[in-house]
Amino acid sequence: MVWWRDQKFRAIALQLLAASAFIGLILWLTGNTAANLAKRGLTVGFDFLGRAARFPISESILSYSPTDHFWWAYTVGLGNTLFITVIVALTATVLGLMLAILRREDNPLAQGAGTTYVEFFRNTPLVVQLLFWYALVTVGLPSIDAPLNPLPGVYLTERGLYLPALSLNGLDMPVRAKFNFEGGLNLSPEFVAMYLGLSLYAAAFIGEIIRGGLEAVAKGQTEAALALGLAPKQALNLVLIPQALRIIIPPMTSQYINILKNSTLALVVGYPDISFVTATTINQTGQALEGIFILMLVFFTISIATSVAMNLYNARVALKVR
Amino acid sequence: MRLISRQNDLMGRRGLVIIGFAAALSGALAACSPAPKPASNAAPAGKAGSTLATVQKHGYVSCGASQANAGFSLPDDKGYWRGLDIDMCRAVAAAVLGDQDKARFVPLTGQQRLTALQTGEIDLLPRTTTWTMARDANGVNFTFPNYYDYTGFMVRASTGATKPADIKGASVCVQTGSITEVIFADVSWRQKLDLKPVIFDNVSATRQAFFSGRCDALITDASSLYSVRATQSKNPDDYVIFAANDEANPLTPAVRHGDDQWFDIVKWVFQAQITAEYLGITSANVDEMLKSEDPAIRRLLGVEAGYGKALGLREDWAYQIIKQVGNYGEVYDRNVGKDSKLKIERGLNRLQRDGGLMVPLPFS
């Protein structure tokens, strides 16, 4: 056989060709970027991370002061992103489970309610929903001078929710100062809009994934379990759910990663997540490439980590074929 | 001794110019206009690849504009852009292309503006941009401040606040992507005011949040506060504006790094407007002034040739600016000063002669 007709040779040659084209493209892009940056007199590097950030962050889980460094500002933004992602994922999973059960009920009212919810939240854009919740809090609630006070120490105002907080000295009640309530726990309208908006949106998808998983297990499985004399609860826990989980987990991984990525929409309601910090950093320093690079790296890392964790869990619940 | 030798120099130049002037007069323009005209009107072509050449090729100057900032840049009800920053761009268009309307405006957010300039989407950024070191060192060149501003708080008059110390613990609406953010943090931190920032990505959301009661105060450039108060509040007297600190904020049109000629042109376009005010030349009397014997006026208006050519422009470049756009005083009064809705005092923006910071550089 002629050497270029050899299938093995062809396969390797094609791979090499594709790889070198790709590497060439990357090299060209890098060189071009460097040349353009130099031409425009832009400095490149991550030195700026060690400088004082100087800009404010409106609320954060980690403590932050404008005298802190840019890298800490990033960390604080990341903290907010992870916080909102985790609580939204938990809330949406619980809500989603409830939705799935609702839609599998025989009661037409329950079924109808579940279906309406899913169709409504799944078929409107998330940005619109976030803006809706934000407007509901800031325009719908009364001004700080005449707050709704349903329970002692609980105030609903256009500036968010003020709640009593647990502290070492017992309950810390919010007290009205000249301009704001001081003390207690304040859930800002930005946070409330993000939490509600993301949770309710994600719950619609998660509900459908769970329902789909449960429906996908052949009806005969449940019938067989009941015929064997298992109680309905046992049939659910020992037969139905273990088989459904195999189907549910892979799309759930995507949903959790989606929640993480959708949290960047915080920008529209002004919740200071990591993309918000990145945008501000770029504007204050002009280091656009570096800022976006860090943002991409962070999201990539978290997404991959989520994926790996979910895959491990999936392997545990997977069908064991012996 | 020195004075005499300078006068001699001027006399010599004047002789030359009279010849050039006569030539121009007897040329194309002789037919109808008895008024003198600037020496030569041939526009030299810019060097290939330069910003000047690009602008000449396109036939318009592309400028960054604000999304909504009455007095500085805002389209009127017919869609015609007006404002102090807009007139800066129109002055450049008048100088470079001979027509103030050969300018296009790209509305940009605070976040987009520097990138738009650096990447060449716009040729000039006259958009209430504060001259800071970090920005200057990072890819743009600042020309001359065309407006000295300060950072202010606007609060409801009913709170009785008149200085930053009066608003301890207040919620403050802040727009991200601006130097205001940094000033806000500095003021709050230095004076231990414990101010609560409510941060927004766009201008209108920030203002709306303030008026709806989400915040007690709005912080931004005082010029914008005046503009917002004049145009967006139900009753302007319900709000007071006071300075956040004692620093002047030089709002400065910027150009890209790497094109010195364009940098020079924009600097001197602004200087021409300052100098015109200094010399008493207005859009109304500029034609009259062409007949002036004053050498400074003759140089500025291009009756004496050479100054336009040095910049790579037509000799009548400054004449066109003043005729079409006006001198700095006219531009100020019309857009933000006494003839506008904003009625901002000239203050720091007076000529140095009158006690302000606007210094006319020697036009020679």
UniProtKB/TrEMBL annotation, chain A:
CDD domains xrefs: TM_PBP2
Statement: the UniProt record of this protein carries the keyword Transmembrane: yes
Keywords of this entry: Amino-acid transport, Cell membrane, Membrane, Transmembrane, Transmembrane helix, Transport
Location, primary (coarse class): membrane
Membrane topology, from the record: Multi-pass membrane protein
Entry GO MF terms: transmembrane transporter activity
GO biological process: amino acid transport
Family: Belongs to the binding-protein-dependent transport system permease family. HisMQ subfamily.
The name this protein goes by in its record: Amino acid ABC transporter permease
Organism field: Asticcacaulis endophyticus
